[in-house]
Write a structure and sequence with these properties.
Elements (H helix, E strand, L loop, with lengths): L8 E4 L2 E4 H28 L4 H34 L7 H18 L1
Antiparallel strand pairs: 1-2
Helix pairs in contact: 1-2, 2-3
Amino acid sequence: MAGQIKGITIEFQGNTTKLDKALSKIKSESKSIDKELREVNRALKFNPRNTELLRQKFNLLGQKVDQTEKELKQFRDAERQLKEQKVSKQSAEWQKVRREIIQAESKLKH
């Protein structure tokens, strides 16, 4: 069945693109924040009371929350578009978007 619906396109911020490409772009934006956060955490291990590093961590965590909210909005838009295109809920694309929504919601809760 997944082979029958490979041509599905999703519109994100006015750009129409294939679903896999759009999802990978969203993930890559989040990875850069994660990388910076890991670097700050590593530096904090050696100097846990450094106020500059703590401020950076606080700012990065705020960016991460904003990015996750943005991801969740885009995934919900993708889900809405899949519904409008009457894509089966058993399709690979539908299930992939649902998994991403569940992950983003879990990240925001924690």
